[in-house]
Design a protein that fits this description.
Elements (H helix, E strand, L loop, with lengths): L5 H43 L5 E6 L7 E7 L2 H7 L6 E8 L4 E9 L2 H5 L10 E4 L16 E4 L8 E10 L3 E8 L5 E2 L13 E3 L4 E8 L4 E15 L5 E16 L4 E9 L2 E9 L3
Parallel strand pairs: 1-5
Antiparallel strand pairs: 1-2, 2-3, 3-4, 6-7, 7-8, 8-9, 10-11, 11-12, 12-13, 13-14, 14-15
C-alpha cells in the first residue's frame, strides 16, 4: 500500500465521524426542541384554555445560565396596526438549565424589537431565533427587553423581572417580579405589586421608589420603601431576622394647585409633614 495516502484516509475518516456526530447532535437537539415546544403547547392551553395562532421565540444566548424559549400568541389587531407584523400577545416563557426548568406566564408579552422590528410576515408555529439584549446595571427598568435578572430586594440573589408590555398609561410597561430561591414565586407585597418602568432602585440605601401621576390632574406622587428587618421567634429560643419593606417617605407635586410640593416621612404608623412649598399666586 502507498503509505502516503494513509494520512488522507485517516483525515477523511475523521471528517466523516465528525460530520456524523454533528448531524446526530443536530437531530437530538431538534427532537428536544420539538418535545419542548409540545410541552409548552400543552402548558399554555392548560393555563389559557384557548388555541390561537402562535410562534416560538428562542433566544440565541443563554441568559443567567438559562436557555429561554417563549411561546407567544399573535394578536391580529397588533399585526394590522403595527405595520411591521408586530409580535404581541399572551405568552408562556420556558427557562431551562442543566438541572431544572420552569414556566412563567405573561399576559402581555413583547418588546420594542418584536413589536416594531419584524419586517417579514410571521407564520403560525414558526420558530424565530433572536439575540437577547442585556441591560446595564444602571438601567434596570429598560422596557426594550421582555425579561431580565436583577437583585431588586437586596437579598444577594437576582430576581426575574417580566416585562408586561404597554400595560401602563402612554404605552409604558409594568413588571412582574419573581423570587427564584426555590420554585418561582411572584412577589405581590408593596413595593413589588406596582413595579413599573419608572421604579427606581437604590442598592446603597436599600430603597425602592414608586412613581405615579396624572398630567390631567397635574399631580404626581412618589412612595419610597426601605428594607428593614423584624425579629420573630421560630423555634426553641431561635430568633430569625425577617426582611420587609417599610414605607418611609411620600413626596407630592402639583402643577395646578396652590400646594406645589409636600414631603412626608414615616412617624410610627403615621406620616409627618416635614416640608411644604406654597405657590405665590
Amino acid at each position: 500500500m502507498n503509505l502516503t495516502i494513509i494520512p488522507s484516509l485517516l483525515t477523511c475518516a475523521f471528517f466523516v465521524l465528525s460530520c456524523s456526530k454533528r448531524n446526530k447532535d443536530i437531530y437530538n437537539q431538534t427532537v428536544r426542541d420539538r418535545l419542548s415546544f409540545e410541552q409548552m403547547d400543552s402548558a399554555f392551553f392548560k393555563e389559557y384554555q384557548e388555541q390561537k395562532k402562535h410562534i416560538y421565540i428562542r433566544y440565541k444566548q443563554p441568559v443567567e445560565g438559562y436557555t429561554v424559549t417563549a411561546l407567544c400568541t399573535m394578536d391580529e389587531l397588533d399585526i394590522l396596526f403595527s405595520e411591521n407584523n408586530g409580535i404581541h400577545g399572551k405568552a408562556l416563557l420556558r427557562f431551562e438549565n442543566d438541572s431544572t426548568h420552569f414556566y412563567i406566564y405573561n399576559s402581555s408579552f413583547s418588546d420594542s424589537i418584536l413589536y416594531y422590528g419584524m419586517k417579514k410576515e410571521i407564520k403560525d408555529k414558526e420558530v424565530i431565533y433572536i439575540d437577547y439584549r442585556p441591560i446595564s446595571d444602571n438601567d434596570i427598568c429598560y422596557c426594550s427587553t421582555p425579561f431580565f435578572f436583577h437583585d431588586v430586594n437586596f437579598d444577594g440573589r437576582k430576581e426575574l423581572l417580566i416585562n408586561k408590555w404597554q400595560t401602563r398609561p402612554k404605552g409604558h410597561s409594568s413588571f412582574d417580579v419573581y423570587d427564584l430561591q426555590s420554585n418561582p414565586k411572584k412577589l405581590t407585597e408593596p413595593p413589588f405589586d406596582k413595579y413599573d418602568h419608572m421604579t427606581r432602585v437604590d442598592s446603597i440605601n436599600k430603597t425602592i421608589t414608586l412613581y405615579e401621576g396624572s398630567r390631567i390632574s397635574g399631580c404626581a406622587v412618589s412612595h419610597t420603601y426601605q428594607l428593614h428587618y423584624r425579629q420573630i421567634m421560630t423555634g426553641c429560643d431561635y430568633i430569625e431576622n425577617v426582611p420587609y419593606f417599610k414605607p418611609i417617605k411620600v413626596q407630592y407635586w402639583h402643577d395646578l394647585g396652590n400646594d406645589k410640593y409636600k414631603e412626608y416621612v414615616a412617624d410610627g404608623d403615621s406620616l409627618k409633614l416635614v416640608k411644604s412649598i406654597i405657590s405665590d399666586k
